[in-house]
Amino acid sequence: MMELMEERYPLRRQKSSSKERRTIYELVSEIQNDQQLHTINENDRSLFIFERKLFIRRLAIYVTESKFFEGFILITIIANCIVLALEEHLPNKDRTKRTIELEKSEVYFLFIFTTEAVLKIIANGFFCGRNAYLRDNWNKLDFLVVILGILEHMLTFLGDGVDLNLLRLARVLRALRLISGIQNMKVVTTTIFRSVFPLLPVFFLVTMAVLIFAIIGMDYYKGAFNRACFQDSRPRMAYNDRMSLSDIPEPPRPCQVDRAGDGHHCTGNTTCRRYWIGPNRGITSFNNIGLALLTVFQCLTMEGWTDLYYWTNDAKGTQLNWLYFIPLIMFCAFFMMNLVLGILKGVFTREREKIQREKKNEKFIDPDEKQQMRNYFQWINRGEEIMCREHSSIPKDTHESFKEAFKREMSKIRVLYVRRFVESDVFFWGTMSCVATNTVILATEHYNQPQWMDSLQYYLEILFVVLFTIEVFLRIYAHGYQQYFYSSFNKFDALVWVISVIGLILLIRSGNRGLRCSVFRSLRLLRVFKKTRYNDKIEKLIQVMTGSMSYMLSLLFLLFLFLFVTTLIGMQLFGGRFNFEEGRPASHFDSFPKAILTVFQIMTAEDWNSVMYNGVRAYGGIDGLGVCVVFFFIVVVLFGNYTLLNVFFAIAVDSLAEAKERSDAEKEKVKSEIKKERMKDEERTCDNLSNSTNEKGSTIPHRTLCIFGQQGRVRVFVGKVVRQDWFEKSVMICIVLSSITLAAEDPTKGNNAGRNKVLFWIDAVFALVFTMEMILKIIDMGFLLHKGSYLRHAWNYLDAMVVVASIISLFIRHSNTKSLKIFRVLRILRILRTINVKRFKGLKKACEKFSKSVKSVGPLVLIYVLMHLTFSIMAVQLLKGRLCYCTDISKHTPDQCRGTFIQYTGFHFQNLEVSNREWKRRDFHFDNVFAAMTTLFVITTGEGWPDILDSATSSSGIDKGPKHEENLPISIFFVVYIAIAPFFFLNVFIAMITVAFQSDKGNKKNENTIGLTENQENCILYVAKTEPDKTRFVPKDASKPREMIWQLVISDLFENFIMLLVILNTICLAMEYQDQPESYALALWYSNLTFVVLFVLEASLKLLALRKNYFSDNWNKMDFVLVVGSVIDVVLDFYKIQGLNFRAFRAARVIKLLKKFRQLRYLLWSFYVSMKSLPYVFFLNFLSFYVFGVLGMQIFGDIKLDDNTSINRYNNFKNIGTSLLLLFRCATGENWQQIMLDCMDWRPCEGASRGTSCGTNWAYLYFILFITLSTFLVMNLFEAVIVNNFDYLHRDPSELGIQHLSTFTDLWHKYASFQNPATMNVIRLEDFVKSMEPPLGVGSKCPKRQVHLFLMRMNLKLTRSQTEGFLTVNIWNVMFGLVGSALGLHNDQWKDENYAALRNTIKKQLKLDENKLDLMIPESQPEIGLREYIVIKKWKKFAQREKTLSENAPRKRIKTNLFNLNRKDSKTRKSQARLKRTTVPQSHPMIMMDNFSEVPHSNSMLESYL
Fold it and tell me: For residue 776, how many other CB atoms are within 10 A of its CB?
């Protein structure tokens, strides 16, 4: 038998180690399974016809299982994808000759795929059988594609009248088969799709939020965008008639009818009236629920929301619209959509750990293998050096041949001289100097540079290539090629050198000065950090980035596949349709290159809404099929942007967190070793240190400013004043008031204006107050020289700088010099002092975490700067002088762009205007390195890159005008940069902030020996704060009608009925639309009134039954507020009272649906926990916005408003309100780069400074600094907080978390006593524990014995109910017992003798109330607790059964002991059971008594309990 097994499984046995070798039972089981499978295969018939023995089936099996066949199919799929990508779509369904020829090849592909499907069906069967064809999901996709392809081919014979676009969409699905052909892609795809289920609650929550905002938007803005300024000469039209754009004399925009409002008012001979279809051809509106949902979703993606906000200002005025849009962006876009990040991170971590567990038996790669190899090479080098020295000391052998002597001398030179020179600091810094010089020389290249600079750069390029060639050969000669190429840096250097040599040869032969790959040498500057303290951080960061590269590459391939499939779908849907009167837009689907760039633009959510508008317009607008194609764009944005791109962030966070755990473990290990080594030294040096400390003296200076002594009256008095609480409060009030006065200044008016004069004197008073504060603190602490003096603290240094700036600004008030404004600007930094106030500890902690996060990203910033500089130099080499154009688009060179031309102007291009031709440069260009770095930074933020890309792809040459799609290959440069910078580096950047922000959080125990982990603390705090749901209980003295009402309102039927009413009410609210008939509107009004009455009745019934307990539930509080608001809304609507609007309460009723779903409650709990941490993050954001807002007022406040620019009446720095809104727009990325350009020095002034230039080129620094600090750093703290509170998603499901504890409170009321909701009859405790699934409970399928043992481990305290007479347990004791069991608080560390320590630890760490602590953990272990109760009840039942069996004289005794532990049929077990029954009661009378009356008198207490 063993020989047979060894014969059959030789390889498996050889591969397994001695520890992993399979047992005989496993081998026998596998043989039996093989035999059973062989039996099944013999009776197997595919299609009920082909037996396995038939030649046809055997041939089919052989072919389909062949690797060559699989490779052939993959090649066919790739070829089919290429054919589909080569198609070109023309307007009116015209086709090119190439497209017609390519369509003929579809028959061959269809034949191949059909043959493949037939072979697989013959080989495995169609549906019946374990391995049947349709049992595999990928085969289902293949079969669908084949059937639709055959159907399409058959329908082509019916003629050209049949539209086959929908059927042709099935072709593109063939590309998805590439996933099934690559094993790693299956894993990545499965991981992503497994995150779908956890994302469903987020999707539901986001949908609910979007629905609420859509309904509110319909109530406020329905029909607001359909009024525009029409000419008075045209007669008025009917109510529903729509005017064309030719009736509007100016660019259309909504207008306000009420002339008293501050919206947009018509001028001249125009009147504000209907009917204009609306912005974006009616797509952007709130006229019905569909368009409202689409509009809110567009705002949620933070694209185009500012245009919508400005249109509402035009139509409704500027007073309250921001109250709708700011919460929409903050709540939905910044917070709720970031929940996706938290969930994806948790799911990815869990799946990665699962894959690692599955691969634990595979080859393990030691993480220190590289370090071991370095040590090995060092050892080899050291050995060679010693050997060479020994040979040099030995006298020369006269018999040694010349060849051997020469070889020895060369080895000596290589080891002792060349290698030492190569490894010296001189060679290292010389090489780095050459690299830096080469980078600087490359960075000096710019457009229109002189000829001598071209020649200098040319010859220096040759020189550097020669120098680096010498360097490479020296390194290879010194270390050998094997050791040289082991280093990744050396491989990179060699690759750059080879490409540089090839580029230099091409440059010498052709003279083409295009892209020179030697620019990548600048990345070699990372080697500089090898000599600094950042070496370890840089190396670890590079290791993390390279370690996660496998996941990144798999994701990039999946991303490309998604782009490819959606591009082909887009070409089938919109190919040849984006041809409008004004021409074809830059983003279209006519050819594959432009189509994939368009889909890439949609996926990045940059200006995706404009592409969607064109797609809807291509299908006839919102009145036709255009509404249906909207879903294509929504799916691409949701799956591409919010799922696939966020996986980059999940991978980065997971990799960094894992690396940080390893790093922390290594640091702890090193610290422990160092601590042991220094133990002896500390004892010896202790005395010396104390002596030296005494010699240095106290840190408190004896005299401050060399005047005030330590015991002097003045200094003692000042010290007392400074340390008073009221002093700090007074300074804090002055800080806040001074910050408000700075924001109240009017920058458009001169210093002589009345308000500015008053504010000047107020500011002088505050400057005097802060000066006195600084003087007092200097007198108390000293100025600079002593440790702990005033200027030794960073915050005091900031205070001193602000005070000096305030004093200087008072004396330069009338100066118009712009450079002196910096002193006035520095005053705003006062508000940052609020961070250092002792009362705001949470804010200070958040700021410290923020500063720690900024420090952690330092190495990454250095890498990014080098990478950014590298790509900037490449961009200059590729595109310098190419992004120019003539105002007359028919001219393409500067020589042609002269004179004048006729230009059609106006909204309808009806006005003729003679203009001068001008040769201009694009706003964002690549003519020099600084401009290129600015442009690439704009692209990094994800804004404006489609326009920059369109300009680059249209570039035709240096000093040549644009030609459409002339330079399409340049788009590869931009796509690569976007994939590296925004996708990779930016996500790693945010991930590092997240990990650093979370570094203090974790399950690290406190310093005491029996400390609690953070998870244990949170769960115990939850237990302490738990209260029984009083709404589920009724007092004993309640009347019969009240008890009946109570039973009604707590029943599940009543709750389900209310939920049904909420759903119906939401449907009725969503049924409104613009221009609805009056009868329809009246019916909806009465339906809303009916729902309001029903909800009032619900609240009344609950109040009547529960009375004061009604408000003990938060859901009831919310319901009551909604009911009151709905009643007020109905009353106001009935009496036609204008000005007040409570309709938001209608839409908010849908929130009541949340309490019905447990998964949503988990999500809401994480939401709630995040909200507790977010106020400080909000305030930190507000501080940064406030500082930059006041700075913007001082610098850009007097720029003239112009509606044709981004600085207009709604978007400016005129006051603090509009400044904050402008900065909020920039933080959302809404065309911030255009605002920056409109703040440059060419902008004129208004107000007191009219006629001069009020912009400044410092706008570049201002906006780039704001975007970096706010968007990239502070705003990303939202993501850090949210991801921090979704760590339960990647935990082991068996590990108890705070999200599980709501199940306890939900089920407690079903088993608790009605007279006392906080107690439960002990008899029902077993059923209660079984009603909860693990980890909190035991589950309904748990054996009774295990349940009893589980309860005995908790050993709860029993008390007798005074009213009902039975034994009870309280809610806190039960909940803490369950939590303690799940968290391991009943293990050896927390055993009985450590019971008091557990109580003291919880009391000390959590600071719980003494009474609540006694209920959770009694002060001492109960003498008679749940353990004794269960044992005695079990014994009584056992004794009663034994007595019954003995009386009935059974033929066969039941073989069991007290807990049915032994169920054996042997006589030995019987005798042992009888022996136990006779001997155990003697030593344990309380447990094993035949009769309870025989319990000793000392235990008589048990009788009263039972």
Answer: 16
Give the angle subtended at the CA of 371 by the CAs of 369 and 373, to the nearest 5°. 70
Q: How far apart are CA 621 and CA 282, in angstroms?
A: 8
196-221 and 1158-1196 helices cross at what angle (nearest 10)? Answer: 60
DSSP-based three-state secondary structure for 318: coil
pLDDT, tens digit, 9 for 90 and up, residues 1426-1459: 888 888 888 887 778 777 777 665 444 444 444 4
Locate 577 and state its tokens.
Answer: 């349709």
- The number of helix segments (H) and strand segments (E) in the chain equals 60, 13
* Bridge partner residues of 580 (DSSP): 583
Indicate the helix (H) or strand (E) that contains 557: helix 549-574
| Ordered alpha helix ranges (H), 444-534 | 451-479, 481-484, 488-510
- Site of tokens 């406030």: 1186
Which pLDDT score, from 0 to 100, does residue 1418 have? 79
Find residue 916's DSSP bridge partners. 900
What does the mean pLDDT of the chain come to?
Answer: 76
User: In this structure, which amino acid lies at residue 1113?
Assistant: D
Q: Give the pair of three-digit tokens for residue 182.
A: 């690559």
Written as six digits, the tokens of 318 are: 């500027």
Q: What is the pLDDT of residue 523?
A: 65
Which H helix or E strand runs over 1437?
helix 1426-1448
Residue-wise DSSP of 1241-1292: TT-BB-GGGTTSB---TTHHHHHHHHIIIIIIIITTHHHHHHHHTTGGGGS-
CA separation for the pair 1166, 722 (Å, rounded) = 42
Q: Work out whether the CA dihedral 1152, 1156, 1160, 1162 comes out positive or negative.
A: positive
Residue 61's nearest CA partner among 141, 121, 139, 150 is 121
Determine contact, residues 828/739, Cβ cutoff 8 Å.
Answer: yes
Helix-, strand-, coil-residue percentages of the chain, each rounded to 5: 70, 5, 30
| Residue type present at position 876 | V
Kindly state the tokens that stand for 49.
């016809």
Maximum alpha-carbon separation in the chain: 125
Contacts 24+ apart (CB under 8 A), 40-46: 44/125, 44/129, 45/125, 46/121, 46/122, 46/123, 46/124, 46/125, 46/126, 46/129
In the block, residue with structure tokens 């035009």: 314
Q: For residues 259 and 1488, give the distance between their C-alpha atoms in angstroms, rounded to a whole number.
A: 94
Q: What angle do CA 979, 983, 984 make, to 5 degrees?
A: 90
Inter-axis angle of helices 305-316 and 289-300, nearest 10: 130
Q: Say what the pTM is.
A: 0.81
The H or E element containing residue 905 is strand 900-905
Smallest CA-to-CA distance from 1202 within 1163, 1155, 1254 is with 1254
Reply yes or no on whether the pLDDT at 159 is more than 80: no
Distance CA 749, CA 755 (A): 9
Convert the pLDDT of each residue in 798-835 to its tens digit.
778 878 877 877 776 655 555 556 666 677 777 777 77
What CA–CA distance (Å, rounded) separates 1022 from 1372? 10
Give pLDDT, residue 1458.
Answer: 43
